[in-house]
Design brief:
The protein is mostly helical. The chain is 92% helix and 0% strand. The longest helix is centred in the middle third of the chain and has 77 residues. The radius of gyration is 35 Å and the shape is rod-shaped.
Length: 109
Amino acid sequence: MSRDNGSTVVAILAGVAIGAAAGILFAPDKGSKTRAKLKDGFEDAKNKAKDKFNEAKHKFQDGYENKKHDVEHSYEDLLSNLSHKAEDAITFLEQKLADLKAKNAKFQK
């Protein structure tokens, strides 16, 4: 989780706590209504924090998948390039071998 997301979560929780305290001090409602309001406020804060966490998790997973795809693509390109280089080396060696066979045939009776 980035530092901004953590700061946001802390700010939300602090706001909920301050709001709850102010609500209790200045509440004209009965205790049961006040408790219900507090419960709803905490549920909202919990849901917002959960949403922020899930959002950060999905961003991380998406970034991971993109980097994984990039690495796999680079690996495939590297293998392809190495295969072409190996083919060039084999062709070169086959030509040299053919030249050596031709030279050697001149010495044979």
